[in-house]
Automatic annotation (TrEMBL):
Residues 1-24, 333-356 are annotated as: Disordered. PANTHER family: MUTATOR FAMILY TRANSPOSASE, TRANSPOSASE FOR INSERTION SEQUENCE ELEMENT IS1081. This is Mutator family transposase. Belongs to the transposase mutator family. It comes from the Bacteria. Keywords: DNA recombination, DNA-binding, Transposable element, Transposition. It comes from Pelagibius litoralis. The keyword DNA-binding applies. One of its GO terms (molecular function) is transposase activity. Residues 1-18 have a biased composition (Polar residues). InterPro entries: Transposase_mutator (IPR001207). GO terms for biological process: DNA transposition.
Length: 356
């Protein structure tokens, strides 16, 4: 009813509200009880569920859409009650969203391309109830850059801890799903990642995120020196003779900030792969910014939740959120750097003849 309320009557009318009538409406795979407003004269015509209507198309899609935006069950129920006059049970909402699980399983096992010139790996953390205790769990994500230059989310994995054993399982899964050898994996200090990756993909070049390395370096120095220290670190990864630039940086800041250069040297084997490529390709692979952008979008969705009841609930929401994010990703024009990576991949006979 759309009348302003004065007692139980409609303003300027002899008519008035007369409670609700209940009817059961069929959705795509279930039924829902609808509370339809009534008036005393019988002239009210409901708009969402019309008189005589017995089916409600699009209901489940609407529930999933609201869930994907981060709404919890209580908020979804309130939304339907306030906007549509529909009483929706928590059990029905749970059944509708649980139907996504089969889609998640299919997505997690779908075949992948043979070649992704670059794959980015990163993690964000969510709170999940596990064995009666709320724990911080890592959600690991992988984004591949396709041969056409577009982004594709390859998978997500929820784990309590990371390590070589976990990453070995992930790499074997990616290989089973169709990825061949020879790719660049861009990461930010994921424990056990290089060893596990190279045991499955021996030709993979593991590239550490330079931006994260620079941020760590800046955290070790005084704020007043940030500009000069950052300038010095940039000369390292932008130089052709990077090792010489690192030595110069180390000597210049040795007395004041010796730990900065030491951090670069500890990670040197994962820093140097990008120096085999021209500067324009280095800009593509020297940072996990593409992952950070994705993670920001996911955090907006999950920030209103205290914690998830289990891993499956977290996976459902993250999967739906990722689907929405991928829809917004438009096929980017092929950049010069991507084109060069593509030519390099196509010319690599090792890829072309790898066993599945």
């Amino acid at each position: 009813m759309t009348w302003p309320i004065t007692g139980s009557t409609g303003l300027g009318s002899e008519n008035s509200r007369n409670s609700h009538s209940k009817k059961r409406i069929l959705t795509e795979s279930s039924s829902v009880e609808v509370a339809v407003p009534r008036d005393r004269s019988g002239s009210f015509e409901p708009q969402l569920v019309k008189k005589g209507q017995s089916r409600l198309p699009g209901f489940e899609a609407k529930v999933i859409s609201l869930y994907a935006r981060g709404m919890i069950q209580r908020e979804i129920r309130t939304h339907f009650e306030e906007f549509y006059g529909i009483s929706v049970s928590a059990d029905l909402i749970s059944r509708v969203t649980d139907a996504v699980i089969d889609e998640v399983k299919a997505w997690q096992t779908r075949p992948l391309d043979q070649i992704y010139p670059v794959i980015f790996f990163d993690a964000l953390f969510v709170k999940v109830r596990d064995e009666g205790t709320v724990r911080n769990k890592a959600v690991y994500l992988a984004i591949g850059i396709t041969m056409g230059g577009t982004k594709e989310i390859l998978g997500l994995w929820i784990e309590q801890t990371e390590g070589a054993k976990f990453w070995l399982r992930v790499m074997n899964e990616l290989r089973t799903r169709g990825i061949k050898d020879r790719l660049i994996a861009v990461v930010d200090g994921l424990k056990g990642f290089p060893q596990a990756t190279n045991s499955v993909f021996p030709e993979t070049q593991v590239q550490t995120c330079i931006v994260h390395l620079m941020r760590h370096g800046l955290s070790l120095c005084s704020f007043k020196d940030h500009r000069e220290v950052a300038k010095g670190m940039k000369t390292i990864y932008r130089a052709e003779a990077a090792a010489n630039r690192l030595t110069e940086f180390e000597q210049f800041w040795a007395a004041k900030y010796p730990s900065i250069a030491a951090g670069w040297r500890r990670n040197w084997e994962e820093i140097i792969p990008m120096f085999a490529f021209p500067p324009e390709i280095r800009l593509l692979i020297h940072t996990t910014n593409v992952m950070e952008s994705l993670n920001r979008g996911l955090r907006k969705i999950i920030k209103t939740r205290g914690h998830f009841p289990n891993d499956q609930a977290a996976t459902k929401l993250l999967f739906l959120a990722l689907k929405n994010i991928e829809k917004r990703w438009k096929a980017a024009p092929q950049t010069h750097s991507t084109a060069q990576l593509r030519r390099g991949a196509q010319q690599d006979s090792h890829i072309g003849h790898s066993d599945a």
